[in-house]
Write a structure and sequence with these properties.
single chain; mainly alpha; 34 helices; elongated
């Protein structure tokens, strides 16, 4: 039974009404859904949801509100009428008939009797047409078919448990009818269990190999599982079908869209138009959306926009079509929303992985994601496809995931024109880190609409204080900090003094020894500085600053091969402190300049400019300009030849 609203309930309901008055309908809907979840026995909340659902033509939410109200207020025949009205608008023929029968049983003299009997006459006529066309049998069970229809809607709106229960019940009672099992497959897909979904769809196709809906669903599954080659023959066969059911044309075009076969999307669309005209059907808006998106991918902008504009705002694909109209020039087109690729349960599993791994460090997070990928078929493959086929939200998500897992599509996205410039640069750097793009060679990316060569970072740079696990005593740390400040102020005598005082306390401190050598160099005491660095390299050959110093000595002595032997291992690192990055970049600039390969030196200057522009000197910028000019001259020379 219904509960009376409390004062705080009325305040919330008034706030939702205020959103409606201000035309913020989507916010009002979300707030109303939240209220009914929190206060499910307050009838006023469900009445308000029903009103919002009518305004927005969200027929499932009207049905949901009406069903609850018939339970809370069973004596009100208006709620029972709304239940049938919502089912009819959901185009659930048998659910409508079931609701009409229940109205007549409970309210034989109800105030809505005339409208109910008129609706029943229309529904019975439609069912007879279905029987005549062979779509259902003459002895069809109204209740079983109503379970099937309701199961589909519940699954589509996220209630997979109840939806699957009703669908399995319908499947048991209708063994020759495959559609309930299609619903079961859909429920597993919504939950993100693609392995069970594939098992279910294979069961259907084993019994009914020509089932068009199941074949189309299998295409989607294979694409999301990364098995594109297996999907292609199915798409080719589906694209040749000429079904009598208008919904099947939508399924065929959807399958071609999942396969990213734009030419076939258009070809099927052109064949669907005369069919719909001949049958005097209104062309399903989804077909306009698919055709428009295919045109956009093929570069036919005017045709794409014309098709998208035909999709009604309240249609399933209305929001995607409008978003495409706004953003496809900057981002690129997309057929499906983020939720079509990434189920909620995958997102919840990701949050768990981050929370669990985050307590133990970044490497632990990466291990958690590797485990998630290994135990969740289709996870990495679907996320990778987001880069090529997703909306802006999808690309942002995929790039965040790519920080922990090497998505296969990173390199292709980086080289494409899709997304924002900074997103493609980020993807290129991540791809470089994972070995999907070269780390020490330039890569051509589209920046500001033009091809541009960039040398990728391929590693992370951090600025937090370095911690080697052996913190200096406070007094020595104070000398290190004071010496660093003195070095920055070009007071090299004081920098030397501070380093010496710190070493008196901690004689083997690598940081203090490095600062000592740097100060000696600045004071032109090069032999002493080189001696310190040689000792450092001998005792700690993996110490980055020691390797840089030894490379510098070799360059000064003209031993370039030896210099590169000191430099090369540093290029395989994944993370650098900003000071380490600066040292590695500067030694590479010097090495390539002395070697006479100014183009390579220019790439390192560009990298330094991306991360630490204050460290790029005027001489470096001149070198970069000269190198670019020389490359341009070489290209012109080659063209003339």
């Amino acid at each position: 039974m219904a509960q009376p609203p409390k004062p705080k309930d009325m305040k919330k309901l008034d706030a939702i009404d205020d959103l409606r008055r201000r035309k913020r309908h989507d916010e009002a809907l979300q707030a109303s859904l939240e209220f009914t979840r929190e206060r499910p026995k307050v009838a006023e909340g469900w009445e308000q949801l029903a009103e919002i659902a009518v305004e927005l033509k969200k027929h499932f939410y009207l049905w949901k509100a009406a069903r609850t109200l018939t339970q809370l207020e069973p004596q009100e025949d208006a709620y029972a009428f709304n239940l049938a009205f919502a089912a009819m608008n959901m185009e659930c023929v048998f659910l409508t008939r079931q609701s009409l029968d229940r109205y007549l049983q409970r309210f034989p003299q109800g105030s809505m009797l005339k409208r109910i009997t008129d609706m029943k006459t229309a529904v019975d006529s439609y069912i007879q047409d279905m029987i005549a066309k062979g779509e259902v049998t003459a002895n069809v069970s109204i209740d079983d078919m109503a379970d099937f229809e309701l199961g589909r809607f519940l699954i589509t709106h996220g209630d997979t448990t109840e939806g699957r229960r009703l669908s399995l019940q319908a499947a048991r009672n209708l063994p020759d009818f495959a559609s309930p099992l299609n619903n079961v497959c859909l429920s597993y897909m919504v939950e993100g269990d693609l392995a069970k979904a594939q098992q279910t769809i294979d069961e259907i196709l084993a019994k009914q190999p020509d089932n068009l809906f199941a074949r189309g669903t299998k295409v989607q599954l294979l694409v999301r599982l990364g098995r594109l080659d297996e999907a292609q023959p199915l798409v080719e066969a589906l694209a040749q079908e000429s079904p009598e059911n208008p919904d099947h044309w939508v399924k065929i075009m959807e399958s071609c869209a999942y396969a990213h076969d734009h030419q076939r999307v258009i070809a099927v669309y052109k064949r669907a138009i005369p069919f719909f005209k001949a049958q005097k059907y209104v062309l399903e808006p989804a077909l306009h959306h698919f055709a428009g998106t295919a045109h956009a991918f093929l570069g036919a902008e005017a045709k794409a926009m014309a098709e998208w504009k035909k999709v009604p705002h309240d249609h399933l694909y209305g929001a995607i079509a409008r978003s495409n109209l706004r953003e496809f020039r900057q981002h690129g087109a997309w057929y499906f929303s983020f939720s079509d690729w990434i189920p909620r349960r995958w997102l919840e599993a990701m949050i768990t992985a981050i929370e669990r791994g985050g307590k133990r460090g970044e490497e632990a997070v990466e291990r958690e994601f590797e485990r998630l990928q290994a135990t969740t078929p289709g996870f990495a493959e679907s996320a990778s496809l987001l880069l090529e086929r997703g909306d802006p939200e999808s690309v942002t998500f995929a790039l965040q995931l790519a920080k922990y897992y090497p998505l296969p599509g990173l390199a292709a996205f980086a080289r494409s024109r899709r997304g924002k410039d900074e997103q493609r640069i980020e993807a290129a750097n991540l791809a470089s880190r994972y070995g999907l793009l070269p780390r020490t060679e330039s890569v051509t990316l589209t920046i500001e609409g033009e091809p541009r060569e960039l040398l990728l970072l391929g590693f992370d740079i951090y600025t937090e204080p370095e911690d080697d696990g052996k913190p200096l005593p406070k007094a020595a740390q104070a000398h290190l900090k004071a010496g660093f400040n003195a070095y920055g102020e070009a007071d090299y005598e004081r920098a030397l003094s501070e380093a010496q005082q710190g070493l008196a306390l901690v004689p083997k401190s690598l940081a203090l020894l490095n600062h000592l050598a740097a100060a000696l160099h600045q004071l032109n005491r090069h032999d002493e500085a080189d001696e310190v660095n040689r000792r450092l390299a001998a005792e700690h050959p993996d110490y980055l600053f020691a390797r840089v110093a030894m490379a510098d000595i070799a360059i000064r002595d003209g031993r370039l091969d030896e210099a590169y032997q000191w430099i090369e291992p540093l290029l395989t690192r994944q993370r650098y402190h900003i000071s380490e990055f600066r040292a590695v970049t500067l030694i590479n600039i010097r090495y390539w300049q002395v070697k006479g390969e100014l183009s390579s030196a220019r790439h390192w200057i560009q990298m330094l400019d991306q991360v630490d522009p204050d460290s790029v000197t005027d001489n470096m910028r001149l070198l970069e300009t000269l190198s670019g000019a020389m490359d341009a001259v070489r290209k012109l020379t080659k063209k003339k030849k």
